[in-house]
């Protein structure tokens, strides 16, 4: 931008600084006026040229005159001598000093047209320079976006263009890449992380900024739709050029396009992985292996696997799937649940990590990929026993050490179908909850959000359809075995 100091430095004009307290004040244009109050006709940022034609007899009026100009945002006053006044009035200089308004003297030989012409030339030159700088930066950013690691290349190129620093953060405020750039040591990571967390609730059309006299930091969400996948933070000098500001905008757009491409690839990958999980759950390991090789040619299923099935908040499941994928674990969403396949040695630790993320987890029996249906089914049975307290339940705990291991599966399924046939899905869920809470009707009411009397009435209806009383231990054991052994259409 053109500054007052740039105009004063034009030697051909012979301008003399009288009271110049802000050489860095930006100049938008030059205006000429002999009015006592030209403020209403100004937009701010002008150099106001005057001969003081109407001020020959002024004494106390100078202070109000200067105050009005300062309020109008005038960048500087150019006072011409040799016509109305032989020299710049001392009262004018004093008023400019009080109101922190730049004042310079225009010698008799310098015309106002010459000053206007020079300022116009400076503005034109500045605009041309800014355009060239902007185009150069845009080319560098676009070129960076075509490199093998486009995200790192773009934020590195942006940091160089800003002569500052840049950083890319996850929505939770953790650093993904950076800070990079000459001023990376000045980057306020903690403050930016807080800005990122605040911006999450405002979607993609929001931004944050913080500044001090020497620098400013802006934070921008990255993405074209849905939730932001990351946030770009850019540290720039306090007086960033228009080209630098445009560079930040361009970088945000490029990173959004890169993110959209990554999302498209990730969606395809997730579809393939979910299909592979579905095939494994049906014991079709050969087709599952072929599907995995489409995504990763070198992918190979372990000789033995364990299924993990987990339920919980949708966003928690989404984050957990992404975390598992980053660790190279086959995971996805299948039938509304998080579903993952791991080597047996990884199962317990992986299940615990998912439980720490707020999910309830069931870990199935160790099986070969060709017997995936058993692993998937046993993981579901384990999941049915998981609670907020237990978090993760292994098949070994529920089945191998329990009474069901002594019962023939086919006979147990036939028993379950006969014993539970009079109950609908809602009643089955209430019965499961009743057994899970050891017969506490109050806890059943709390978990299901029902009134205690409602729970009592519904349990009475369930009891009427069963061959015994629910307070009878034998009935409870039978109910538990029936629910654990139930056919697919009766299980949760």
From TrEMBL:
Residues 23-122 form the Purine catabolism PurC-like domain. It comes from the Bacteria. Pfam families: HTH_30, PucR. Residues 428-484 form the PucR C-terminal helix-turn-helix domain. Coiled coil: none annotated. This is PucR family transcriptional regulator. It comes from Mycolicibacterium nivoides.
């Amino acid at each position: 931008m053109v500054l007052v100091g740039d105009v004063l430095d034009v030697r051909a004009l012979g301008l003399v600084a009288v009271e110049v307290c802000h050489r860095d004040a930006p100049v938008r244009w030059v205006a000429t006026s002999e009015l006592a109050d030209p403020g209403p006709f100004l937009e701010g940022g002008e150099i106001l040229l005057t001969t003081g034609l109407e001020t020959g007899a002024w004494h106390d009026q100078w202070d109000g005159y200067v105050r009005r100009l300062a309020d109008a945002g005038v960048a500087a006053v150019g006072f011409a001598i040799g016509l109305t006044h032989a020299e710049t009035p001392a009262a004018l200089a004093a008023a400019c000093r009080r109101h922190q308004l730049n004042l310079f003297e225009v010698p008799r030989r310098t015309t106002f047209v010459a000053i206007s012409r020079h300022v116009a030339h400076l503005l034109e030159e500045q605009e041309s320079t800014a355009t060239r700088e902007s185009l150069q930066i845009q080319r560098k950013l676009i070129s960076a976006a075509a490199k093998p690691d486009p995200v790192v290349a773009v934020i590195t190129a942006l940091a160089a263009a800003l002569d500052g620093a840049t950083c890319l953060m996850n929505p939770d405020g953790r650093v993904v890449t950076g800070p990079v750039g000459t001023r990376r040591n000045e980057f306020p990571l903690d403050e930016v992380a807080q800005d990122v967390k605040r911006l999450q609730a405002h979607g993609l059309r929001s931004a944050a900024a913080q500044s001090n006299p020497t620098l400013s930091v802006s934070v921008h969400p990255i993405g074209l739709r849905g939730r932001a996948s990351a946030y770009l933070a850019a540290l720039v000098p306090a007086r960033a050029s228009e080209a630098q500001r445009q560079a930040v905008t361009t970088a945000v757009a490029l990173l959004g396009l890169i993110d959209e491409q990554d999302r498209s690839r990730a969606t395809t990958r997730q579809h393939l992985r979910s299909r592979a999980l579905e095939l494994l759950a049906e014991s079709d390991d050969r087709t599952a292996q072929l599907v995995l090789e489409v995504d990763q040619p070198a992918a190979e299923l372990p000789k033995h696997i364990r299924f993990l099935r987990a339920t919980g908040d949708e966003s928690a499941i989404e984050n957990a799937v992404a975390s598992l994928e980053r660790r190279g674990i086959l995971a996805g969403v299948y039938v509304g649940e998080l579903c993952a396949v791991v080597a047996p040695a990884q199962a317990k630790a992986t299940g615990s990590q998912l439980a720490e993320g707020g999910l309830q987890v069931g870990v199935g029996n160790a099986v070969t990929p060709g017997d995936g249906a058993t692993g998937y089914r046993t993981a579901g049975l384990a999941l049915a026993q998981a609670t907020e307290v237990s978090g993760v339940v292994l098949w070994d705990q529920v089945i191998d050490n329990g009474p069901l291991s002594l019962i023939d599966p086919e006979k147990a399924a036939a028993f379950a179908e006969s014993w539970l046939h009079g109950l609908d899905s809602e009643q089955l869920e209430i019965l499961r909850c009743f057994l899970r809470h050891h017969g506490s009707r109050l806890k059943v009411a709390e978990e299901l959000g029902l009134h205690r009397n409602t729970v009592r009435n519904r349990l009475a209806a369930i009891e009427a359809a069963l061959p015994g009383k629910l307070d009878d231990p034998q009935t409870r054991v039978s109910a538990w075995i029936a629910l654990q052994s139930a056919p697919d259409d009766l299980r949760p």
